[in-house]
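This section describes the prediction task in plain terms. A model, or a person checking by hand, is given the sequence of a single protein chain and must write out its three-dimensional structure as a string of tokens. No templates, partner chains or ligands are provided. The sample shown here is typical of the held-out split.
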Amino acid sequence: MTLVTGIELTDNELDFSLAYFECMIWADQPEGAALDISDLEPDFVRAQMFEAISFYLRYEYAIGYASVEQAGRDLWLTRNGHGAGFWDRGDTYKDLDSGYDFASLLTEAAERLGSIELEIKAATIG
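The expected answer:
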């Protein structure tokens, strides 16, 4: 499946990315707005798509203990300090065989990306 970038994505990569974008719009759109991905600046969408896919590919082994959709949402929430995210999911990111909890690793990686704000097309907000 192709989304925005012209790159063929696996189902998991697509699900992770879509959840990331859905969460960013839900969490950070201006009050009273009803935005969708087409309301965001194309360069912002492209850059965020690459960030999301890069994060997923780098940490797929740790994300595999949760749903990819939840992980996509947790990436946006954690990197932007929304008070929920990887660190806030109990055993969601725990390897049940070894007992290792990947939540701290994913939290630190998301925080290293830094927080960002939505870039909305000027015509969208009036």
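For orientation: The chain has a mean pLDDT of 90.
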